[in-house]
Structure formats: C-alpha cells, structure tokens
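Protein folds are increasingly written down as discrete tokens. With that in mind, we are printing a sequence and the tokens encoding its fold.
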Amino acid sequence: MHTEDTIAAISTPLGRGGIGIVRLSGKDAIKIVEKIFISPKKKKIKQTPTHRILFGHIIDPLNKDVVDEVLVSVMKAPNTYTKEDIVEINCHGGVFPLKKVLEQVLNNGARLAEPGEFTQRAFINGRIDLAQAEAVLDVINALTEQSQKSAIAQLRGGLSKKLEAIREELIELTAFVEAYIDFPEEDIASLSLKDMKNKALKIQQSLRNLIDSSRYGMILREGLKTAIIGRPNVGKSSLLNALLEHDRAIVTEMPGTTRDVIEEYLNIKGLPVKIMDTAGIRNVENIAEKEGVKRSLNAMEDADMVLLILDGSSALQKTDIELIEKSLSKNTILVINKTDLPQKIDWNVGAGLVPAPMNGNHKGCPYEILGQARNDAAEIFLKQKIVRISAKKGSGIEKLKTRIVDTVLHGHIESNTDVVTNIRHVHALEKALVSINSFLTAVTNKTSPEFLSVELRDALDAIGEIIGITTPDDILNKIFSNFCIGK
C-alpha cells in the first residue's frame, strides 16, 4: 500500500442532500486544494490554523469557472483522523457538484482512495490499532443503541486494553521461560513452576471470558437470527407483522401463501433481531412450495433462536410434533397462537412447564399423541418455553418480546460493552487459548523450556493478529476492503 501520496474520495452517500463532502488526506492535501480554492477575503489554507473552516469557491484553475460554493475544513497533522493533513470540502449535496469537485481534486494531484484507505492509514500511522479500526465499521453498521455502545467502546479502546493486558502477561511469562533457555545451568525450582502455572491460569481465564462474551457480542453485531417456524396457517406471517408493527408479509387463509423466507430487522429492548418468516412446513407436490419448505428447514437449522408456532384453536398434528422434535437442539420458544379463539391445546405452564390433559380429556395432550413409552418425547415439552399469544389481536406480543430477550440474555440486559463482536477475533482468541492449554499441560509434565516458549510465542502471535501487530497483509487488505470508499 502506498502511503506517501495524497488520497481523495467522496465521503458522503451520493444523492440529493444538504451537503456532501470530498475528503483528502496526505502530505499534499493542503497544496492541492489551494490550487482550486478561492476565498473572497483572500485567505490561504496553508496559513489557516488547524481545525478551522474557510468559506469560498472551488474553481477550475484552467478557465477560472466556479464549480461550487463551499466550506473548506482544514485539519493539520498530527491531530487528525489519519495523523496526516486532512482537508474536507463541504459542497452542495448533489451528485453533480460532488463529482465535479472530486474531478478537480484528482486533476490536481490527488489519487482516488481505495475502500477503507483513510481508516487503514489511521491504523498504519498508529492512531488506532486494528481492533479499533474494525470498530469503525461496526459503528457505521450498528443495528441498535446497544450495538452502537458496544462499537463505540471498542473504538475507544475498551477491548484493546483487555487484549493488551493479556499480551503483557504473556510477554512477562515468555521472558520468564526464556531466561531458563539462556541459562540452562539453572534448575527450575518448584516455586517457579507454580508461578508459571498460576500466571498461565490467569491468562487462560481472561481468554475464556473474552470468548464467552462473543456470544452476546456477535448478536449485537449481526443480530439474533430468529426463524418463525410452523405448519401452514398457524399465524407465522401474522406474528411477523405484529412484531414489526406493520404489514410486511401477506396474510391470507390460503395455505402456502408464503413461498420464500422473508427477513426483517427489529429492535427488541436493545437486542437486534433478524427475524425470518418462513413458508409453512408440510408435505407438498408443488415445486415452488416444496422449495419454500426446504428453505424453511434450512432457516430453522441456521437460526440462533426458533419461534415455533402452534395453532391453539386446532388439535396437535403430526407435523407439529415433528417440528418440536427438530427444535430440541435449538434455542426454542413454543408460541401458542390464536388464543382469541376457543382452545384445543391447553398445557399447564406452571411449575416445570408440565403438559397436562385438557379437562381430564387426553385428546390433544402430547402424552396421548407421542405415547407414554417415549419418555424422551415427554421431555421435549419440559425443555420448551411456552408463550400464548393472539397475533391477530396483538395480545401476548410484549410478553413474547420479553421472553426472547430473557432467553438470550438469561434475564438481564448485558451492561458490559467491552465484548468480542468479531468472528476473526474469536478465532484468534481460540488459537491463543489452545496454546495456553498446551503450555499448562507441558508445565505439568515438566517439559523442556524450549517447548514452553513455542506455545507462548504462538499465543502472543494470536493476540497480535487481533490488534494488528502480527496480522498478515492479505488479512489487512480483506478487512479494509469491507469499508466504503471515503472512510
């Protein structure tokens, strides 16, 4: 990557708007803009104190034609986003003026920036580490206020400080071990072995805590993938509309109305949820509907959470039981819909969520359908969380939202925002943990210090990958290619 030249790009979305910004960064940023900027008061950008704004016009220096009336923000190194000179030209927010101003900037010495190159320069110039650089994209893509808080905390270095603390512990332990390699005549005393083990155990726990936090962190970043599953006409699309509070899916009395997976994002008490309405699951011959059923089952398999809907006004069917069995391995909430109608499913959701016959009649009771001999089948219902709703009337929807949050967060919204939100970070932490586990085994077996040092060096490299100390160039390029041009 070239960092000696000056880069430029449009940093706001193209389209009509109040303003649009053309951004430059590099050693010639000020010189380039001075070629095309005229101030009515004859002010010069070079002589302007840093972090000031000048009013004037961008012109074509060849014919002196005015391109646009602008405000120019001047930010001089090193106290800038990239630690280089930055100039931002605030234009009128139309597509044409932005492109014409960018054209003048490029014609006078700047190079069009690559995706994420401004942030990449901030990383290369040491203003932020790689974890903080990735957090920039997380801030932009935040799905809820809680997602944004987590991203801002990482951008401010919250996660990096925890990683740096682990890295310092690893460096100290590595130096401790390698001292014995340099001085082989010295024996490792039992106390020294104990100290090494205790330090490694502390590092091990810190790594585990960060890995454990990724469960919540990944949900904040990507959203909780939640599939609405059930046989046709149990109210799946009606539930989607009720959760979104507007009509997103078509609802009819005809089975098979939904043929494909419909995806929407919603915010449930700060938890970002990617909700998926699926086609009704049943045996069909129609090719299109059969493909819809296939996609429904795939969505169920890939989901973090399943909302399995039963029609409370209808007796249990074989498909209902099969879907309950399929959901055993998933994080599932059993939703009994159509409570505004006379009920034919009446399960006691008291202590232990134990299913009970309705009015002494075993019809519709899971024990009757599944058979008493199948003890494991009875356990299905003990593991389900049951919520009764009427999607049509809107009753029970708030209770369902609360149950979704409680099921994921075990009864409380996480207040800790220094969590791992990136799968790349998780993989690196897991590599570091494997190395520390191997180190602890080697210490217990009193393995040669050379082998101990190798494990610690591997753990250090893994942590270094996250913050950008030992990250290969191909990974760096892949990370920043996900950014938009101009950021």
Remarks:
- The first strand starts at residue 7 and ends at 10.
- The chain has a mean pLDDT of 82.
